[in-house]
């Protein structure tokens, strides 16, 4: 198969979808890999490394899309890329369709085969291609939140862990999945008072067992959230419904009860966000203030630590990408239910139910396109 690796063009997105080590694996199996020049530089991988691994370097993103049968990316295509996708071309990347009707409509019109990292799902319900970036984002959420609690950047001027004689900050984490768990570990390690909420009592029992003493668990419901935000210095939204829009759990009226200079970090923003006032921001302009509360809503948080993120992501994605290249997308999806669940839009048809429901689009069972 001919594999294309374009340079990411989303604002401040420095990750790359395939490392030189990954190119070596494709080439060993007889595949051709085209990599756009400088695609790996943001992650610390020079063009020479790709050439030594057997990749063919191309000057432009247009050339990569034109030659490749399978495009492997990190982030969803943005508007300049829409028309580059050909009918029947496989695009393997994060899509997060439910947060963007424009992207969904564009992929329907282009009639490509859109296989989304975030909905590849194992039999136990885990999301193997989302987990590594959720781990990074959960840890970064606390790191960024701690930074923006500083007074010079608009925060309350509170040190997350406090000091002897001074109380630490209160951190509220909504969602006890991978993001929430990693965020709680980081916040607890820095010495904050941490409350983590979830709707799953079994998950809360597990978290209560593994977390240190400065982490408390609480059932997630509107009353508890409404009360907890009043005293929270940092709120982290860590809610995920696979492939679907995140529910709005913190409303505008709740925001008005928060302390001036408090910070909210919505990690769910790439799925529409779980904080009503959050809209996607970039690493270039990451924050805004509403009702005295500082919002950090960067949709590609792991892009700020591209070396770590690229290695973590490609460790997870490469085995799936190799399977797609070896077998072709259709045969690979017929043999692997994990990959089949990754199909979102195929030949102009929406085959992932949560995406169809998000925009009231016709839904076609995936079996009909295989």
TrEMBL record:
CC annotations in GO: plasma membrane
GO molecular function: alanine dehydrogenase activity; nucleotide binding
EC number: 1.4.1.1
Residues binding NAD(+), per UniProt: 134, 198, 203, 220, 239-240, 267-270, 298-301
Active-site residues, Swiss-Prot/TrEMBL: 96 (proton donor/acceptor), 270 (proton donor/acceptor)
Nucleotide-binding as UniProt keyword: yes
Stored InterPro entries: Ala_DH, Ala_DH/PNT_CS2, AlaDH/PNT_N, AlaDH/PNT_NAD(H)-bd, NAD(P)-bd_dom_sf
Pfam families: AlaDh_PNT_C, AlaDh_PNT_N
Keywords: NAD, Nucleotide-binding, Oxidoreductase
Annotated catalysed reactions: L-alanine + NAD(+) + H2O = pyruvate + NH4(+) + NADH + H(+)
Binding, substrate: 15, 75
PANTHER family hit by this protein: ALANINE DEHYDROGENASE
Name of the protein: Alanine dehydrogenase
Organism the protein comes from: Thermonema lapsum
